[in-house]
């Protein structure tokens, strides 16, 4: 789609993005999937932080993500401000199979809301969807039907955090919300597309804060897309061809 | 491994001489090797007296004299032709194997007659019930310690196997065969059985199943590992172990801690002990106990260096004040948590020791061989675009230094660089990352108390070559070029990133990236590239002033994991022998079934070299001289002399 208007160079802008979250939730794997469309089993922990770039083509502009993939270990936490300072977007990642990781994610969200630039677009991402046998829609549907039923994970399912739980929290805080699998690729592209779209053009040059409610609305939509497209085949709706 | 047999597979010949005059340290084991090699370079202080020979004898456990042995190794005799009585002898009168200082043409010559062929020994050596050797009156000029491995060890582990024994009485326990006596005739000469065994050394031990039914099997696997490292806190909490889960070896950890605290409670410090074939070496560092358990035959001090390096890795993660704080606040701290994510660094370091690391053995670094002019141009490129916060700037290719710039007041510590290289080239985390990295790191040799920040960028200029490279050299996996820029400013990333980009652009402009690239592709030369027709299979040359070493390719003789380990075991043995505190040796010569080897120490350099077992002693000495000659002629290519001094940041405050 982006090729259609290739004759006219699209305006290009850089977006600084930081990934935060507990150790071993899959931050680097998400980035590796996004940047190289690749996955490594048993990836060794990131040391310090890695800096990567990747372009994302939108219909009207090109977004160049400058990605800070930070180490999740506690001892690196004090360095985080250096990475999220001036960041226009943040990906706060948790592990769907590990409740403590959502708690940690909430801490990061709170810290970002307190300390980062006011307009920062935050996406909450539950990773390792491939370990969850229940399909997202089933889970989500269940979650909507009965509040309690989904509290108990289904047999053979490693999922410990229901879609509803995380999604409710994300809506409350005005975050984009996704469930992804860096391993099979489900939802990864969508996360970055959504972030690229959520950053208002004005913000790319100026500093007008993004409308929080608008993002939240989008969150729901994107989340739905993601959940339905469990096989990872769902094409990007927004025309991002990166 | 058969424990009863008639023959000790080793005998030691040792001649030690003291020289009253200063003689040039040209090594010459026979009269014919008298070309002069770098006397000025090699001149050293000759000790007027050497320690009493007697004590050294005891040290080597050369308890039984065999005066009948008078086999010669010399100009006219090759060992396979030697007489069959298996003995060793040194005699003053004999001039065949002569040590002399060529320049002064000292009349007093030491002659060495040594070591019958292994063939003859194999069939005629029942008299060697234990270590045997003969020492005769020897004159001065230099000292030689020579020992001979007779075929020994029913397991036929060759060099590796020969060293896998302990003798607690002797610092050179690795040479001593203790109670292992083997029937020579039954021993196959070349048995590669342990090959597979060593290849399994790095296999992970699976987890314990819940009912514990596989425990015995797993413990057996655990015990079969040739090398272990344990790190625990003074309170007994496990911090790191290379093999097996905590559950599996909790018993061993408990025992280790008990032994430690027993000694601690009597205000004593446990240093080392042997149990069976394993050597246990312990190191206490503040609140940490570090233990190495090795069947590979390193000396205590070599193992201690390895443990110290692991400790430095921990410091480089935490800094000393943090480590001390953690334990002073709560002695029962579980250090695994703060160290989380660095297990792979510790494991990679431990494995490099198990495989054998010349760099750690020699406490020195290796450089990429470049023309002086090229290196100057590269250095210059870094200086041209240097940013003000830069502390150290390095270009590294696969663990070999290409260029270093440093502030006037600080040099780089080999230990620190080893930690960095381990992180970048051995452990996968940074290497795998496609982008740039910003890594807070304490360099303990530089300053134990705070962090520096390291910018790392790998260059992919070799990518297109990779597939063909794989066949060429075993080293290729680590042959990537990295630019490392180190600063004390935690916010310095963008500044250093800019500098790196400029360095790369500059290097491209002056076409030096391709120079580096071709130097990498060329790889290390083989020994025969270096000295055409040499008998040497491999050598290590350490420049003591530069703390750097040179070595040829492992090809063609030492390409396998085991082959390389055996080579490194020989080097460890040589290194231990020549550095034994009581020795004061300058030259150390050792012979095994497969190899003859030589260590040669002067104030300027250390040379360790190895040749096939059939090579004559004088040929070996001659070859060693040729290497020295080569290094001298190439000195400015193979070493970075001094590094480029830059004006570093005027003040340096480290983050704690």
UniProtKB/TrEMBL annotation, chain A:
PROSITE patterns: RAB, RAS, RHO. Residues 142-155 have a biased composition (Acidic residues). The keyword S-adenosyl-L-methionine does not apply. Keywords: Nucleotide-binding. Residues 232-242 have a biased composition (Gly residues). SMART domains: RAB, RAN, RAS, RHO. Gene3D superfamilies: P-loop containing nucleotide triphosphate hydrolases. GO terms for molecular function: GTP binding; GTPase activity. Residues 138-160, 204-242 are annotated as: Disordered. CDD domains: Rab5_related (cd01860). This is Uncharacterized protein.
Automatic annotation (TrEMBL), chain B:
Residues 227-349 form the FUZ/MON1/HPS1 first Longin domain. One of its GO terms (biological process) is autophagy. InterPro entries: FUZ/MON1/HPS1_longin_1 (IPR043972), FUZ/MON1/HPS1_longin_2 (IPR043971), FUZ/MON1/HPS1_longin_3 (IPR043970), Mon1 (IPR004353). Keywords: Autophagy, Endosome, Membrane, Protein transport, Transport, Vacuole. It is a peripheral membrane protein. Residues 40-56 have a biased composition (Basic and acidic residues). Residues 388-504 form the FUZ/MON1/HPS1 second Longin domain. Belongs to the MON1/SAND family. Its main location: membrane. This is Vacuolar fusion protein MON1. Coiled coil: none annotated. Residues 1-22, 61-78, 106-118 have a biased composition (Polar residues). Residues 1-78, 106-128 are annotated as: Disordered. It is found in: Endosome, Multivesicular body membrane; Prevacuolar compartment membrane; Vacuole membrane. Residues 536-635 form the FUZ/MON1/HPS1 third Longin domain. The keyword ATP-binding does not apply. Pfam families: Fuz_longin_1 (PF19036), Fuz_longin_2 (PF19037), Fuz_longin_3 (PF19038). PANTHER family: SAND PROTEIN-RELATED, VACUOLAR FUSION PROTEIN MON1 HOMOLOG. Required for multiple vacuole delivery pathways including the cytoplasm to vacuole transport (Cvt), autophagy, pexophagy and endocytosis.
């Amino acid at each position: 789609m982006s090729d259609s208007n290739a004759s006219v160079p699209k305006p290009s802008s850089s977006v600084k993005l930081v990934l935060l979250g507990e150790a071993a939730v899959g931050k680097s794997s998400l980035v590796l999937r996004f940047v190289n469309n690749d996955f490594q089993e048993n990836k060794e922990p990131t040391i310090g932080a890695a800096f990567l770039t990747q372009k994302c083509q939108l219909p009207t502009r090109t977004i160049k993500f400058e990605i800070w993939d930070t180490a999740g270990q506690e001892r690196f936490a004090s360095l985080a401000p250096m990475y999220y300072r001036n960041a226009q977007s943040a990906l706060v990642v948790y592990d769907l199979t590990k409740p403590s990781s959502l708690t940690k994610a909430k801490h990061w969200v709170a810290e970002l809301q307190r300390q980062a630039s006011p307009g920062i677009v935050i996406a909450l991402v539950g990773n390792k969807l491939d370990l969850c046998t229940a399909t997202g829609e089933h889970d989500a549907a269940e979650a909507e039907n009965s509040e309690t039923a989904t509290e108990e994970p289904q047999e053979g399912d490693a999922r410990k955090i229901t879609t509803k739980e995380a999604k409710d929290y994300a809506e409350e805080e005005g975050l984009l919300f996704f469930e992804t699998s860096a391993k099979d690729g489900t939802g990864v592209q969508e996360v970055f597309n959504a972030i690229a779209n959520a950053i208002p053009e004005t913000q790319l040059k100026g500093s007008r804060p993004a409308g929080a409610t608008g993002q939240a609305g989008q969150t729901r939509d994107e989340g739905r897309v993601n959940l339905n497209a469990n096989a990872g085949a769902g094409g990007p709706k927004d025309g991002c061809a990166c | 491994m058969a424990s009863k047999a008639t023959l000790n597979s080793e005998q030691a010949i040792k001649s030690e001489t003291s020289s009253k005059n200063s003689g040039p340290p040209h090594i010459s084991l026979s009269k014919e090797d008298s070309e002069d090699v770098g006397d000025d370079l090699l001149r050293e202080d000759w000790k007027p007296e050497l320690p009493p020979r007697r004590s050294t004898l005891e040290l080597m456990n050369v308890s039984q004299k065999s005066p009948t042995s008078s086999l010669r190794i010399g100009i006219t005799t090759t060992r396979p032709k030697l007489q069959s009585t298996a003995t060793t002898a040194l005699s003053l009168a004999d001039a065949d194997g002569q040590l002399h200082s060529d320049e002064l043409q000292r009349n007093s010559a030491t002659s060495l007659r040594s070591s019958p062929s292994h063939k003859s020994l194999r069939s005629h050596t029942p008299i060697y019930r234990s270590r045997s050797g003969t020492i005769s009156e020897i004159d001065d000029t230099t000292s030689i310690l020579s020992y001979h491995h007779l075929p020994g060890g029913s397991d036929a582990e060759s060099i590796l196997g020969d060293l896998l024994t302990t003798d607690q009485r002797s610092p050179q326990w690795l040479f001593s065969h203790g109670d292992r006596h083997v029937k020579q005739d039954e021993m196959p000469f070349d048995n590669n059985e342990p090959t597979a065994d060593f290849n399994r050394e790095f296999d992970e031990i699976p987890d314990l199943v819940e009912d514990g039914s596989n425990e015995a099997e797993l413990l057996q696997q655990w015990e079969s590992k040739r090398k272990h490292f344990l790190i625990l806190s003074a309170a007994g909490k496990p911090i790191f172990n290379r093999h097996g889960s905590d559950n599996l070896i909790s018993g061993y950890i408990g025992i280790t801690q008990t032994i430690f605290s027993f000694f601690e409670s009597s205000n004593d410090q446990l240093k080392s002990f042997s149990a069976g074939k394993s050597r246990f070496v312990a190191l206490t560092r503040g609140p940490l106990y570090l233990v190495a358990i090795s069947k590979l035959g390193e000396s205590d001090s070599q193992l201690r260096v390895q443990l110290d390096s692991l400790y430095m890795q921990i410091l480089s993660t935490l800094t000393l004040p943090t480590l001390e704080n953690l334990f002073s606040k709560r002695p029962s701290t579980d250090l695994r948590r703060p160290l989380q994510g660095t297990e792979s660094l510790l494991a990679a370091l431990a494995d490099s020791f198990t495989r054998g690391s010349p760099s750690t053995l020699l406490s020195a670094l290796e450089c990429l061989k470049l023309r002086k002019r090229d290196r100057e141009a590269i250095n210059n490129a870094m200086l041209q675009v240097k940013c003000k916060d830069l502390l150290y700037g390095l270009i590294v290719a696969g663990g070999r230094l290409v260029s270093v710039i440093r502030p006037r007041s600080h040099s780089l510590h080999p230990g620190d660089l080893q930690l960095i290289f381990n992180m970048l080239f051995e452990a996968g985390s940074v290497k795998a990352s496609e982008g740039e990295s910003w890594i807070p790191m304490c360099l303990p040799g530089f300053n134990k108390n705070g962090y520096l920040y390291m910018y790392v960028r790998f260059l992919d200029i070799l990518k297109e070559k990779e597939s063909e490279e794989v066949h060429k050299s075993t080293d290729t996996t680590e042959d990537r070029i990295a630019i490392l820029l180190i600063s004390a400013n935690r916010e310095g990333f963008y500044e250093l990133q800019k500098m790196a980009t400029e360095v790369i652009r500059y290097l491209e402009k002056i076409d030096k990236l391709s120079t580096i690239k071709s130097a990498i592709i060329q790889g290390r030369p083989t020994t025969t590239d270096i000295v055409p027709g040499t008998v040497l299979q491999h050598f290590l040359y350490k420049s003591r002033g530069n703390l750097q070493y040179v070595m040829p390719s492992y090809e063609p003789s030492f390409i396998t994991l085991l082959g390389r380990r055996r080579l490194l075991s020989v080097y460890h043995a040589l290194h231990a022998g020549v550095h034994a505190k009581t020795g004061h040796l300058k030259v150390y010569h050792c012979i095994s079934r497969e190899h003859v080897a030589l260590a040669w120490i002067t104030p300027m350099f250390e040379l360790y070299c190895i040749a096939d077992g059939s090579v004559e002693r004088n040929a070996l000495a001659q070859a060693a001289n040729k290497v020295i000659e080569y290094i001298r002629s190439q000195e400015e290519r193979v070493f970075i002399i001094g590094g480029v001094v830059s004006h570093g940041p005027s003040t340096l405050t480290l983050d704690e």
